[in-house]
Specification:
Number of domains: 2
Pfam families: ROK (PF00480)
CATH superfamily of the largest domain: ATPase, nucleotide binding domain
CATH architecture of the largest domain: 2-Layer Sandwich
Helix content: 25-40%
Shape: globular
Family: Belongs to the ROK (NagC/XylR) family.
Number of helices: 10
Strand order of the largest sheet: 3-2-1-4-8
Order of helices and strands: EEEHEEEEHEHEEEHHHEHHHEH
Organism: Leifsonia virtsii
CATH topology of the largest domain: Nucleotidyltransferase, domain 5
CATH class of the largest domain: Alpha Beta
Largest sheet: 5 strands, mixed
Protein name: ROK family protein
Distance between the termini: 16 Å
InterPro entries: ATPase_NBD, ROK
Strand content: 15-25%
């Protein structure tokens, strides 16, 4: 039995995974804010799963944690996880001290990529395109995470596509993330709706031209991310996940439409069959927690 924890900005998912990779137990709890609270949240999650499985921390084959921010997978250090109130935290070491066993820490998007790959029983190469507050991808090659030389592989949200575009949080202008992410939509469409993208889609359906333009830029940005992932890594599958994926087929249909338009003017892109490579993550599945349970093998 493996244990995986996905620490999100507001909620934490914890799962126990059996030897076949199937979900055996799952608990959800609120995430604490700040160094001590985040550690305590993870410890509580382990305790709750332990109660359900009858296992102590030492009884699990492995324990993994997925967390936002920059993660050093060797040391277990986490940096710049601003939504959790973490500037720098020795999360792996602190959890090992509390639990009495080693804990593997991984970036949450990369963990979600691994969980998605195994959940969908894919083979070959896959990219998990996370569309949340920002945009990032996790890449899996033959069942193993591909992190690159410094762990930055997949940060495609910070590829500039418009030199005259909006200033990105990374300091560059016109990054993909400025048009194809939750924060990008919120910047372009101020609203009281807690999900600005939902408000944009509703306004676009009502005929608002500015909302329609924002919606079109979103689809083009996601399609561009798909094209980049295929042209650089030749992934066989791109799975769209994250908060924006809850739009479901409405979003996927828009992206497919852009990709088909490109195929009509480019025989080269048509030969790659990009639309057939794109799919949505299964709704409601804790893929990041599942992946965290498997990171000990990666």
């Amino acid at each position: 039995m493996r244990l995986g924890i996905d620490i999100g900005g507001t909620k934490t998912d914890a799962v126990a995974v059996d030897e076949s990779g199937a979900l055996a137990q799952r608990v959800r709890l609120a995430t604490g804010f700040g160094h001590a609270a985040v550690v305590e949240t993870a410890v509580t999650a382990v305790s709750r799963i332990g109660e359900l499985t009858g296992l102590t921390p030492a009884g699990f084959q492995s324990i993994g944690v997925g967390v936002p921010g920059m993660v050093d997978t060797v040391s277990g250090h986490v940096a710049h996880a601003v939504n959790l109130g973490l500037e720098r935290l020795e999360l792996g070491g602190m959890l090992a001290g509390r639990l009495g066993v080693g804990v593997r820490v991984e970036n949450d998007v990369k963990a979600a990529a691994l969980g998605t790959y195994h959940l969908l029983r894919l083979s070959g190469t896959m990219a998990f395109l996370n569309l949340g507050t920002g945009m990032a991808a996790g890449i899996v090659v033959d069942g193993r995470l591909w992190r690159g030389s410094t762990g930055i592989a997949g940060e495609i949200g910070h590829i500039p596509v418009d030199p005259a575009g909006a200033l990105c949080g990374c300091g560059q202008r016109g990054c993909l993330e400025t048009v194809a992410s939750g924060s990008g939509i919120a910047r372009q469409w101020p609203t009281d709706d807690p999900l600005p993208v939902r408000a944009v889609f509703a306004a676009a359906s009502d005929g608002d031209r500015e909302a329609q333009a924002i919606k079109a830029r979103l689809a083009a940005g996601i399609a561009s991310a798909v094209r980049i992932l295929v042209l650089t890594v030749d992934v066989g599958t791109v799975v769209i996940g994250g908060g924006l994926s809850h739009l479901g087929e409405r979003l996927l249909g828009d992206v497919h439409e852009v990709l088909h338009d490109w195929e009509r003017t480019s025989p080269f892109l048509a030969s790659l069959d990009l639309p057939a490579r794109v799919r949505l993550v299964p709704e409601g599945t804790p893929v990041a927690a599942l992946g965290a349970a498997l990171v000990g093998e990666n």
